[in-house]
Every structure is written in structure tokens, then in C-alpha cells.
């Protein structure tokens, strides 16, 4: 969300019981910014009409976030760049050359001055929004598929294609914990991991069609949700993304077969 919370920014969700609910739609007045992974554009829209279409990337757009305010957006693409856009002029005002395909990015502070991006070359890059080059890189043992922050922006979680999740303390810029378990396998280059709203749990989908929930403090798997893989071995589809309800009372997950599941009774 930008500071005034009038817009919502979306990219291409405690312990959970296995109850399914309907999929909830955004309220009529909601506005969203969506990366377009096929048309190399970003779209700002509400439920009635598109607001802006921003064209400029030469590859798939994998992430889009508001940059501290509702008038600026940063996007990351497979064309190996990050672009900053001014929605008032509908123009790209800066291009940052990362040198590797960007799979996800997060904004660390409310002013939008610090950006962290995750890349195909197994690294995360730290950017000062006012500088053209990255200030610091951290290298992992696999491609970085997604990033997420705790609400206080002290901790960053990274999903890595070596089938691990890495927890970084951003006050030290160091990995302080690694999460993995038997059965968990990152299913694609854009698998999304998310913190629960209170920062106590992690939710991520797996190639086996399950959703794994880890306790952040314990480092252990609290539960495994199996609705996506409950129809037989050969119908399993990798779960690619999860998202928490703002109050932490429900969790949504989606898989590559276009199935979405809402989990409640958390």
C-alpha cells in the first residue's frame, strides 16, 4: 500500500485448519497496480476501468510496488532492469540496470528510499532509490523467487530455488535462520513466500501441491495444507503463491492449474 492507502499494489497468506471458503473479490472502490508477465506492461486499475498502462520494459514484468507514495511505482522485470515510474506524467523517470532478471522486490521504508530486489543470478540487491547502482549484494545457493518483509521492516524472508527459505535481519544484513523440510520443494521461479501479519509465521507453496506453514521463532513446520494435492498423485499442481488476510484470520493459496483455495479457522 502507498502511504494514503487509497491504492493497492499487487504482483503476478498461526496454524491453519483445512476448511475451504469462497474466493473474496476486491471492493468496488479498490484500486490496484498489477504487473503483466506477458505484455511487458504495468496496469493501474480499479474494478470499473484501468487507470494507467505503463509501457517500457522489454521482458516480463514480475513485480510492481508503490514507492512510498501513490504517484510513484517501481517495477522489476526479466529484462534485467528496475524502473521507477511517475504516474502523473505516466513516464519512466529512472532505470536501474541490475544485470540479472528480477523475480521480486520490496520497499523497506515508508519514504521509498530503499529497495531490495531478488534475482535469477542467486542474489538479492539493495538499492538506494536515489542511486543508479546497487549498494550491496547477498548471494545464495539458488535463484531468488520472492521476497517479503515483516511489518516493522526489520526482517526479510527470501524464497530460494535450493528449496530453502532464508531469514535476514536487515539491521545486520545477515542471514539469521534457514527453513527447509522433507517434502518441501520450490516449484517455479516465481514461487511466493509471505509473512503472517504478526510476523510469527511463514506460508509458502510447494511443488508437491501442498502449502507449508513454518513458525518463525521455532523454525519448525506447524502444519501442511493439502487441498491442492488431495485429488490424487497425478493431479497435483505446484502451489505458486500465498497471501494472508490483513488480520491473519484467513490464508489464500493458488496453484499452476489456476485453482485458488481460501483457508480459515486459523
UniProtKB/TrEMBL annotation:
Keywords: Repeat, WD repeat. InterPro entries: ATG16, WD40/YVTN_repeat-like_dom_sf, WD40_PAC1, WD40_repeat_CS, WD40_repeat_dom_sf, WD40_rpt. WD repeats lie at residues 54-95, 111-137, 193-224. GO terms for biological process: autophagosome assembly. It comes from the Eukaryota. Transmembrane segments: none annotated. Pfam families: WD40. This is Protein will die slowly-like protein. It comes from Tribolium castaneum (Red flour beetle). The lineage of its organism: Eukaryota, Metazoa, Ecdysozoa, Arthropoda, Hexapoda.
Amino acid at each position: 500500500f502507498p502511504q494514503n492507502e487509497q491504492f493497492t499494489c499487487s504482483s503476478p497468506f498461526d496454524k491453519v485448519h483445512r476448511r475451504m471458503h469462497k474466493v473474496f473479490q476486491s471492493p468496488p472502490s479498490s484500486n490496484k497496480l498489477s504487473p503483466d508477465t506477458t505484455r511487458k506492461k504495468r496496469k493501474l486499475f480499479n474494478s470499473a476501468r484501468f487507470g494507467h498502462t505503463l509501457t517500457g520494459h522489454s521482458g516480463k514484468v514480475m513485480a510492481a510496488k508503490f514507492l512510498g507514495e501513490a504517484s510513484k511505482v517501481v517495477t522489476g522485470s526479466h529484462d534485467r532492469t528496475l524502473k521507477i515510474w511517475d504516474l502523473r506524467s505516466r513516464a519512466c523517470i529512472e532505470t536501474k540496470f541490475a544485470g540479472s532478471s528480477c523475480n521480486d522486490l520490496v520497499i523497506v521504508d515508508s519514504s521509498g528510499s530503499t529497495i531490495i530486489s531478488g534475482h535469477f543470478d542467486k542474489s538479492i540487491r539493495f538499492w538506494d532509490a536515489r542511486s543508479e547502482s546497487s549498494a550491496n549484494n547477498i548471494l545464495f545457493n539458488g535463484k531468488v523467487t520472492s521476497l517479503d518483509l515483516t511489518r516493522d521492516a526489520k526482517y526479510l524472508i527470501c524464497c530460494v530455488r535450493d528449496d530453502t527459505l532464508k531469514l535476514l535481519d536487515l539491521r545486520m544484513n545477515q542471514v539469521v535462520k534457514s527453513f527447509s523440510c522433507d517434502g518441501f520443494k520450490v516449484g517455479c521461479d516465481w514461487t511466493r513466500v509471505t509473512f503472517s501479519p504478526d510476523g510469527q509465521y511463514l506460508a509458502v507453496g510447494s511443488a508437491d501441491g501442498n502449502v507449508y506453514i513454518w513458525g518463525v521463532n521455532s523454525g519448525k513446520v506447524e502444519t501442511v495444507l493439502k487441498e491442492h494435492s488431495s485429488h490424487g498423485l497425478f493431479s497435483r499442481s505446484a502451489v505458486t503463491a500465498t497471501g494472508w488476510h490483513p488480520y491473519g484470520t484467513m490464508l489464500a493459496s493458488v496453484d499452476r492449474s489456476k485453482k485458488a483455495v481460501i483457508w480459515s479457522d486459523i
